[in-house]
Amino acid sequence: xxxxxxxxxxxxxxxxxxxxLRSFSPAQPQMSLSEVAQATNLARPTARRILLTLEELGYxxxxxxxxxxxxxxxxxxxxxxxxxxLWDMARPHLEDLAEQTNEPCSMAQLDGADIVYVAQVVxxxxxxxxxxxxxxxxxxxxxxxxxxxxxxxPDEALEALTVxxxxxxxxxxxxxxxxxAALSEVRSQGWAxxxxxxxxxxxxxxxxxxxxxxxxxxxINVTVNAAETSMDTLLDVYLxxxxxxxxxxxxxxxxxxxxxxxNSKVAKSAARA
Length: 273
Prior knowledge:
By secondary structure, this protein is of the alpha+beta class. It has 2 domains: 12-69, Orthogonal Bundle (Arc Repressor Mutant, subunit A), CATH 1.10.10.10; 83-257, 2-Layer Sandwich (Beta-Lactamase), CATH 3.30.450. Helix content is 45%, strand content 19%. It contains 10 helices and 9 strands. Strands 6-5-4-9-8-7 form a 6-stranded antiparallel β-sheet. It is elongated, with a radius of gyration of 25 Å.
């Protein structure tokens, strides 16, 4: 049933048009005019005019008395996601993760031998690692850096580590074989931990975030106070929640990348089909 607004500027025609679009579902991908009218509680003449308008706009296909949606309706939802960056897509999942764990969560990217924080959700803590967007840390001292380096080919990872750190923090690098062995383990298990490597009393666990092609572009983590949270809790409780958040971010990103492009001849042809 079309929603009834109460504001003086409410446009009922738009409400009815959106209701017609929402009436289609996997259970009813195709409907007759009568079925659309019944599903939306609209009069047949009204439902017919809306369907004809949506057909002209390219959102509905009408064939032999049967109505169905076209791929162009994807533009309506993806307009929202497409207006957001990766970090905005990740933020709601990070917020859910922070609420579930009551611990700060963040997202980082690799820049040479450093990680750079690009998003975070802060949870009030007496003892916490204070970071801002843009904060840099030496990659090998963090769980995020280990995950991001492990996503590279071994030679690429070693080359990245030759770039001088711009974090301003002293750091003694490990030997080549030790680095490669550690990254191989991270690559195999799909996550990394850093237990009081960067700052005493702080430990974290990180997992990669990949785009629609499966390429790792960033990582997200949970950071805890070592005195409050054991390694068992970090890995047995928080890690699975972190992996879920990463997968949801990946799915949102993949949908955004798969959105129909306004400049794509294929998308335009599909919309008109």
